[in-house]
From TrEMBL, chain B:
InterPro entries: ABC_transp_permease. This is ABC transporter permease. It is a multi-pass membrane protein. GO terms for molecular function: transmembrane transporter activity. GO terms for cellular component: plasma membrane. The keyword tRNA processing does not apply. Its main location: membrane. It comes from Geobacter pickeringii.
Amino acid sequence: MKRRIGLVSAFLAVPLMCSVAFGAGAPAKPLVGISKIVSHPALDAVEKGIQDELAALKMNAQYDLQNANGDANTAASIANKFQSEKVNLAVGIATPTAQALVNTLKTTPVVFSAVTDPVKAGLVKSLTKGEKFVTGVSDMTPVKQQIQLLLKMKKVKRLGHIYTSSEENAVVLAGVVKQACKDLGIEYVETTVSKSAEVKQAVQSIIHRVDALYISTDNTVVSALSAVTDVAMKSRVPVMSADPSSAESYPVLAAWGFDYYKMGRATGKMVAEILKGKKPEQIPTRFMTRASDVDLLVNLDVAKKLGLTVPKDIVKTANKVVENGKLVKK
Amino acid sequence: MIEGIFVEGLIYGIMVLGVFISFRILDFPDLTVDGSFPLGAALMAQCILMGVNLWLALLIAFAGGVVAGVITSLIHNHLKVPNLLAGILTMTMLYSVNIRILGNRANVPLLNQETILSQVTTRLTGIVPDEYILLVFFVVVTLAIKVLLDLFFRTDLGMTIGAMGNNEQMVISQGVNPKTLKSIGLGLSNGLVALSGAFAAQYLGFADVGLGQGIIISGLASVMIGEFLIMKSNRIGVLTLCAVLGSICFYAVMYVGRYYGYVINMTPNDLNLIKGILIIVLLVLTQSRKLKKFALKAVVKND
């Protein structure tokens, strides 16, 4: 029994020790904690973008990179860790991690990134200014303009949309797509999935009822993009995507959106401003809508197969064009 | 940070108590937990937004979990579905239910909302140092739940439930219907899990459908750590204490992995691997301990 008690106390002593070890000495370089919900190409690109931007601005920051492995419960552990380390600033990539940081770090600036609707997520009260310690970058894409672009290439009466019901970003975007369709006088056909394995069946279930498909920046659906394009091409239905980077390798008619790496750079710029002393309150939520932020990809091969003509001015403004099986970047 | 570990360990400790009831007392591997945890969070969040009395909301969350557990037991008892599958079925169905409860959304924020935790914080400010307020609160809450559970398992009903987990045939021969007992046990177990989810949502600042993902693994690991740490005992009070301590230790180990993992070149991506290995090691250790006992007995007999 004595040995057992010893074991118990040893186990309980471990956390005590680390709290002591981390209590000593504040770092001379600013310490930036980055908490992302899961390791994923887009979110990893944001993380890298932030670090590259701060390096480019010659800010010698130290980083604590954390990842919740897709488990939202872990988000609070990470926030606690940042608090005990006394980070100078914390970045929350994706909605749950940003919420946990804001909930825990009451007096440390928090910059959110890759949050589609920060007001609905409860992070800020308005988009025109930040909270006392919170501001950030939204990954809301120009949905209405994307659909308008599609309309220039094909007459669409019914637009299909597939999204993941367990991703808050995707759910918010679905609402925006629905509203945009209403404004443009298009019938909106939606279907939801809960994991990437369901995407193919979901597409098959609506493909006969739609003239075109719209894919938003939805991690699960984008990761199953090959299933979407496979079904769509067989039924000769064009696909409009909001993610140009994944569209490079699949037959998507057009993709208009931003690169997550660029969003990371924009987030990094904001982090640098706050570390230099600017108040988060003075910085409104930034959207990735500047001309330099946005990429447009047009696939002329797909257009040819579908018997569509892409207007010359769209091809001219596109910075990535796929023609005769080759990708040309401008 | 130390208080963070204890607070988390205690919040999820309520869930571990639930897992302990189904796995150890009922001997029923119940995967409903992955769905009833976010169910509790979702019910709590929606009640807070609707302005329901917070303690009533907690009760609603608990009741929701009880219903989930009872459904699993009904599927198992009356449709003759194996216990593992019955749990998976309820868990799968709860995904859709949880999204409905959250109002067709995946995530509902509770930032800047009045929660039980924020009320407790304002009430105890000045009496207890700020960082220890939640710790004090959850020590009281979790221990109160533990004591209530101990009392329940000392009643006739509780004793019979415990006996059924050990030997179902014996309970049947005593003229008790094991189906009813299973429903009560699973209801109680999932009620506690949902209660834990309700507290977790307030602590995290949001309710998300993804909250339940893999929660059963954390629960199991905690139960096993608890059993490993303290000598086998038949006293229910000791067993439930083990479950709570196991939970604290599990979250401490995960914290340490996050803090010092870089020393052995470990990234946060490796933590799930560590979780699995931890469970395997504990299983092997407890087994070898049992073998040792057997070996000793054999030696004694031979002498």
